[in-house]
């Protein structure tokens, strides 16, 4: 570009025009346009924050489930099957329809946010386990002693 001939002058004028055009486009036209740009930026940031909060909530829920599963494994006496509860507390199985009791226990657990587990039984297959407090509510027991 240091050539002092006609082609060098044309190239120099072209770059000067491009630079002027760029500088004119870079400045905001007025305050309203500038505020609109900022508003759009803030809206994008709000969307990102909302998405991150949702992701954090999901992670927190998964963390609570994991914590519950660890506690369930460490203290398994808090969860038991309906039949085990009835045997342990001396409640007769006669007159009770166990599958309907299971549905009621599941409903109570979901309403109260209590977790449910499962065990494999050789006779019945996969059998749900419920919190002892839910089972006490199911059988209307306040303080029943283990037999």
Could you please describe the fold and organization of this structure?
- The mean pLDDT is about 85.
- By secondary structure, the chain is mainly alpha-helical.
- The longest helix is centred in the middle third of the chain and has 44 residues, at about 30-75.
- It has 2 domains: about 30-75; about 80-140, no CATH class.
- It has helices at about 5-25, 30-75, 80-90, 100-110, 130-140, and strands spanning about 80, 115-120, 125-130.
- It is rod-shaped, with a radius of gyration of 35 Å.
- This is Phage antirepressor Ant.
- It comes from Campylobacter concisus.
Shape label:
rod-shaped
Q: Please indicate the count of domains.
A: 2
> What structural class is derived from the secondary structure elements?
mainly alpha
Largest sheet: 3 strands, antiparallel
How many individual helices?
A: 5
Helix share, percent: 55-70%
* Beta-strand percent range: 5-15%
Order of helices and strands: HHEHHEEH
Q: How much is the radius of gyration in Å?
A: 35 Å
Instruction: Point out poorly predicted stretches.
Output: none
Kindly report the spatial arrangement of strands forming the biggest sheet: 1-3-2
CA(first)-CA(last) distance: 101 Å
Overall strand count: 3
Mean of residue pLDDT?
83
